[in-house]
Amino acid sequence: MSTTPPPTPSTAARRPSAGGEAWRAVSGRVARVAARAHQTWRRSLQVRVVTITLVASSLLVGGFAFLIADKITTILLDSARSDVRQRVTSGASYAAKQVSLYGQPQEAQLQETIDGTVNYLAGGDPQQTSGVVVAITANDYPNEIQTRTAPSANVQQLISPELRAAVADGKVASQIRTGRLTGKSTKYLVYGSPVPTSFGQIELYYLVPLTRQDVTAADARATVVATGVALVILLGLLAALVTRLVVNPVRVAARTAQRLSAGLLDQRMVVNGEDDLALLAASFNQMATNLQRQILRLEEMSRLQRRFTSDVSHELRTPLTTVRMAADLIFAERDEFDPAVARSAELLQAELDRFEELLTDLLEISRFDAGFAMLDSEPTDLVPVVHRVIDRLAGLAERVGVPIELDLPGAPVIAEVDPRRVERILRNLVGNAVEHGEARPVLITLGADETAVAITVRDRGVGLKVGEEKLVFNRFWRADPSRARQTGGTGLGLSISLEDARLHGGWLEAWGAPGQGAQFRLTLPARAGDRLTTSPLRLVPADAALPFGGPRDGGPLAIGPGTGGAVAIGPAPTGDGQRAEVRS
Predict the structure, then answer these.
(1) Dist. CA 346–CA 335, nearest whole Å
(2) Are 294 and 379 in a shared domain?
(3) Sorting pLDDT into bands at 50, 70 and 90, what band is 117?
(4) Does one domain contain both 235 and 276?
(5) How many CA atoms lie within 13 A of 112 on its CB side?
(6) DSSP letters for 423-478
(7) Of the N and C termini of the chain, which has fewer Cβ atoms inside 10 Å?
(8) Is the pLDDT reported for residue 305 higher than 80?
(9) Listed residue (388, 397, 483, 508) closest to 442, CA to CA
(10) Calpha distance 499→386 (Å, rounded)
(11) Do residues 362 and 384 both lie within one domain?
């Protein structure tokens, strides 16, 4: 006898996998449809208004339709009850007269009288086709009097024990039952009434089909439902039309505003009519005209300012060169002068150096403002760049008593950057940290991951007050105007550094807290043109603590700014790539 071999493990494994793939495909398609529907609901005012109108009108019309259909059904049923009750009353009276001549249920002519009474009450024709069934039963005398119906049918299935008991108690009772008397299931209104006789009581039943009433009620319900559906559709179309009249100008205004924000300042809305929407369009156009005029005025002023700065910087080059030559000559012969004159020559030389640096920075700022700054990227090892910056500032750090500590990886850190600009950024950051270090160590840390490189410069000086992290990159801003500069800076170093970082597509961020010093973080993409998402180093130092309580809850707490001046208060991050600041 041959048997079917069991499925191989590979086949058994593939079957649930195929079902799982199909289920995932269906669920993914449903999720996409739901997401598109949700997006349409959020973005389209017209869809929301039409949907709400349709739902509200459907509920309202559906409620009215239900009440009307129920009322029609009740009226038809009440009419049928009234008619059948009259027929039962008159039929019971007639039957009582016919059987009143008999004193015993065993009399021979009683059964014939009952048969004739049933036929008469049924309309005289035992085969009548109106559907009404008349029955006379005698529950007290089941052996002497047989149940008679016209037309002939088995009515026992439609006469419930409850109805039979109520009639036996001498009451006229009714109920609605569904059964098969003529071959198909039909709903009947069953009425029963007692028929008093000289020997006791018999029961008269009328079974009236409710087919006509059901058809009439169904037609009425269909008419009401069709009218309600048409009304709901009409209300939806009306809501869509009215909403479109209101939403279209708003959409036109939104598109015009987007074009204006993109720099197309000559875009205007079309004004039609004199209604409120036309007033909105006219007001929008007037606002756009005023904004265009003001923007053009500001652009002209900015252009003139940049041109003035650039022209002044260039024009000062010639007299500065002359003054520099004279100052160098005087400075070279200062040993032959009186001590006071020699000191004046030294001061003149120092201020000329600072003045020359200021002119150089002003020219660089003017290039950034004019959009002429260019990036010369090349693969560069940042470790030697950091060492060059430290070597250049070692004399200043030794003079002010600020030790510089390095935390650099042993392997090269390669990134596609402009080495001249990166070195200028680090020179400004380290020089600023040394100047504000308060004779405490300055820590320089270099880190990298697959997408970015980062350098942090940490000092432990007076720090920054809340809100000052938004100002440190402003031109010529100083936290303490009375503080003497150790490096003779121009006040433009951090502003130029920020522009250099932006030119690389990177971040330059600051954190600070009173009494805890400050930390600056430079983050650059490892490959030129990539977009930054995280930084290898955290902005808030791990040793930073809340000024009002210090570390708690199992870890240090930090307060500091994020990009754009946002401030974060909470546990300092742990691990590379985590960020404690709030980006805005």
Answers:
(1) 11
(2) no
(3) confident
(4) no
(5) 4
(6) HHHHHHHHHHHHHTSTTS-EEEEEEE-SSEEEEEEEE-SS---TTGGGTTTSTT--
(7) N
(8) no
(9) 397
(10) 20
(11) no
CA distance 332 to 336: 9
298 and 426 assigned to the same domain: no
Each as own residue / partner, the long-range contacts of residues 196-200 (CB below 8 Å, 24 or more positions apart, any chain) are: 196/96, 197/96, 197/99, 197/100, 197/102, 198/100, 198/102, 198/103, 199/102, 199/103, 199/104, 199/105, 200/105, 200/138, 200/140, 200/141
- DSSP-derived letter for residue 514 is T
In a domain, 425, yes or no: yes
Q: Which two tokens stand for residue 15?
A: 């079957």
Whether residues 512 and 407 fall in one domain? yes
Looking at every residue in the chain, the average pLDDT score rounds to 79
What is the total residue count of the chain? 584
Q: What is the 3-state secondary structure (H, E, C) of 314-338?
A: HHCHHHHHHHHHHHHHHHHCHHHCC
Q: Which residue among 243, 262, 281 closes a domain?
A: 262
Report pLDDT digits (tens) over 342-380.
888 888 887 777 777 777 766 676 666 666 677 788 999
Beta-carbon contacts of residue 455 (< 8 Å; ≥ 6 apart): 382, 386, 426, 429, 444, 445, 446, 447, 521, 522, 537
Q: How many domains does the chain have?
A: 3
Does residue 551 fall inside a structural domain?
no
Cα–Cα distance, 513 to 561 (Å, whole number): 9
Contacts for 569 with CB less than 8 Å, ≥ 6 apart: 546, 557, 558, 559
The reply to whether 277 falls in a domain is yes
What is the largest distance, in Å, between two alpha-carbon atoms of the chain? 169
Which residues constitute the domain of residue 449?
A: 374-545
* Whether residues 236 and 318 fall in one domain: no
How does DSSP assign 179-243, residue by residue? EESSSSEEEEEEEEEEEE-SS-EEEEEEEEE-HHHHHHHHHHHHHHHHHHHHHHHHHHHHHHHHH
DSSP conformation class of 263: T
Does residue 497 lie within any of the structural domains?
A: yes
Judge whether 388 and 427 are in contact, CB under 8 Å. Answer: no
